[in-house]
Amino acid sequence: MAWLELGRKRIYMNISRALNKSSFRRVAGSSNGSIYTAQSVYASARCMPDLINHSSVGVAGFSIGTKEGDIRCFHASPEVWARRGDEAFGLKAPKKEKYVRKEGRNQPPVEARYVPRNVKAPNSIPDKTVEIFEGMTLVELAKRTGKSVSSLHDVLTNVGEKVESEFEPLSMDIAELAAMEVGVDVKRLHSAEGTEIVPRPPVVTVMGHVDHGKTSLLDALRQTSVAAREAGGITQHLGAFVVVMPSGASITFLDTPGHAAFSAMRARGAAVTDIVVLVVAADDGVMPQTLEAMSHAKAANVPIVVAINKCDKPGANPERVKLQLASEGLLLEEMGGDVQVIEVSALQKTGLDNLEEALLLQAEMMDLKARIDGPAQAYVVEARLDKGRGPLITTIVKAGTLTCGQHVVVGSEWGRIRAIKDMAGRLTQRATPAMPVEIEGLRGLPMAGDDVIVVHSEERARMLSAGRTRKFEENRLRRKLNEDIPSSLESSEEVPQRVEMPVIVKADVQGTVQAVTDALRTLNSSQVLLNVVHVGVGPISQSDVDLAQACGACIVGFNIKSPPTALSQAATRASIKLILHRVIYHLLEDIGNLIIEKAPGTFETQIAGQAEVLNIFEVKRSKSKGPDIKIAGCRVVEGFVARTGTMRLLRSGEVVFEGNCASLKRETQDVDTVKKGNECGLIISDWYDFQIGDVIQCLEQVVRKPKFIKSESGAVRIEC
Known about the structure:
- Its main location: mitochondrion.
- By secondary structure, this protein is of the alpha+beta class.
- The protein contains 16 helices and 37 strands.
- The strands form ten sheets. Strands 9-10-8-11-12-13 form a six-stranded mixed β-sheet, sandwiched between helices.
- Helix 15 (565-573) links the parallel strand 26 and strand 27 (578-581).
- The longest helix is centred in the middle third of the chain and has 27 residues, at 458-484.
């Protein structure tokens, strides 16, 4: 074991020598002071090659120092040994592979078919709506909107409102401004605490199918004749008026149109009403708009009183109407329900007392009351533009008192009330609950269905109007984006050609503008896109003609005055089509015909005629000119045969060949068509095997235009 002891001594000697060399580096940061790393430690391994596999100390891995020392463990890997060139131990570094350049690196990439990514339309996430009330704090508003108190405080500072504390009560106007700035819609909650609450008249909406006698019934109640003044004998506006009953009680009535195009008007009427009078003709029964009116009333949670009209007509059958209503889920009193049914006749003025009694009884059961103190809450029934007075809105006050001189915000419009008129046209200084009035003084025309809000100052009205306008525009652009992006692009079917038809809509009142616009959009089809580029209230102006000329649109005017002669001539010179009507039926029919005219149509192949082969004639030709020609002697048995059509050869009922007509002759003359009952000679390109009894069909390409379809309920559509 002397050689083993000698090897150990040499190891220790080399380690000591390495520690005393100046080539060591000092590294700061160890826990015990300084750590040294020896560069020549590997030399000890050269002194004892025989101890690699036998020594208990081990050359491949050794350690010096203890926990108290300043040297940590060091392990030499085989790769380290090989890098030092110790090939005597059989440790060789791996050879580096030679870099080989791949061929074709400089070649252009292979052109691949472009596959569009599957773009899905973003889900139409409804805007968050929070409820606000008078006196709520900034902390409460932050909880409801999901925003931090500091961000809401910064918003209020930017709009010029000073809030000293986060627990300071805010007005509803300030709360709405802050909520709109952070992109949240609001719903105002009004409290009646501390105010005087008094009984109010009921608001009754008359609904039903077109031409079932709604306006005639109201005429009988108020002793007037509105139906005679309506264009076409049908109601096309939403009217509001107060009727004083023989008993002395007053009822506010809303008259709604019954045509299918005025669904939005009926929905607005149901939203503001207390009771719905459902008028059904005894000789006609339940119709589509009757069911729609029932749906609107149920959606608004409004009680229904059924008035079966035209009971004086010979074909009247009230019992059948009752069974139809019961089958539609309406629980009538006669069948154990709570819906009152009254049989009336507007023409003979019978049953009106019973209808009045039923309405007042229903109102008494509902115990209708409202506050008369404080700022008013009102609802826009209709809006129109008057040439001399400007924007006018018809509104019904729901609570509070509306007085002249107040600053109001209606939708995104604002103004100061200059005048208030009742439905009889008399000026008044104030409007109380359930009272329909006409307001004058707004800066712009609001939308029908907007709420009327009273604010304290003109500055507050301006700020609130600007915020609502900005929010309305954001919502409009978001809806437009959702409509433009297709729901899926995976369909490989060819999209049919679609033509855009721009339209400008002008009408007498705002509600009619919305109804006509909605009705026109229902006429969109896969071939024609009806794009409403502009809507407005009032007569056609020069700016409308200029806009129509710029975008190539036609102008649709409903229930407005005819434009001046100079304006009509300017439109004619610019090739602008003016469509003016006072009845919705005629307007939709004209627009439908215009859409059919502009539609490109679809190409279809149809059989134009049929001929039977009676004989076969062969014309010999030299080999240099080609094969012999075979002529089919035919008689046209159906339709006609044209030289420009495609010929289909049938044998025993099966298609044998299809090809073009090379020649068509009648006797010795070339002809374009041969009609039924005549004989002709026919040559089909690239076909020479005719047999007697074959049938030749003449196929032609035709363009099939869409169809304008009108249902019994008045609904219209374009069928491609």
